[in-house]
Amino acid sequence: MLEYTVIIEKSGSNFAAYAPDVPGCVAAAETFDETRTMMEEALALHLEMLRAMGEPIPSPSAQSALVRVESR
Questions:
Q1: What are the extents of the domains in the chain?
Q2: Alpha carbons 41 and 12: distance in angstroms, whole number
Q3: Could you give the CA distance from residue 8 to residue 38 in angstroms, rounded to a whole number?
Q4: What angle do CA 47, 38, 56 make, to 5 degrees?
Q5: d(CA 32, CA 13)
Q6: Residues in Cβ contact with 51 at an 8 Å cutoff, skipping those fewer than 6 apart
Q7: Tell me, what's the pLDDT at 4?
Q8: What is the side-by-side order of every strand in the sheet holding 14-18?
Q9: Residue 59 pLDDT
């Protein structure tokens, strides 16, 4: 099982997601949870397509961290 970092951003009235390690794989939906689910499905289909085409599967390498910054 592979675990990819996924970035989910608020975009106007919906949410959009992408995986830094998997260029071209994106998803969007009305809610955060729907977007996460759509992105899981998009990643699975994207990797399946890469395998079918004989292309290499990108290794997960991106990391994320929450950084707290005091606001003034």
A1: 7-52
A2: 23
A3: 11
A4: 10
A5: 11
A6: 57
A7: 98
A8: 7-11, 14-18, 26-29
A9: 96
In this prediction, residue 72 carries a pLDDT of 85
CATH topology of domain 7-52: Double Stranded RNA Binding Domain (3.30.160)
Distance CA 69, CA 31 (A): 26
Report pLDDT digits (tens) over 24-54: 999 999 999 999 999 999 999 999 999 999 9
* Cβ-based neighbours of 4, under 8 Å, separated by 6 or more: 19, 21, 22, 43, 60, 62
Residue 50 CB contacts under 8 Å (≥ 6 apart), including other chains:
56, 57
20, 7 Cβ separation under 8 angstroms: yes
DSSP for 15-68, please give it.
EEEE-TTSTT-EEEESSHHHHHHHHHHHHHHHHHHHHHTTPPPPPP--------
47 neighbors 55 (Cβ within 8 angstroms): no
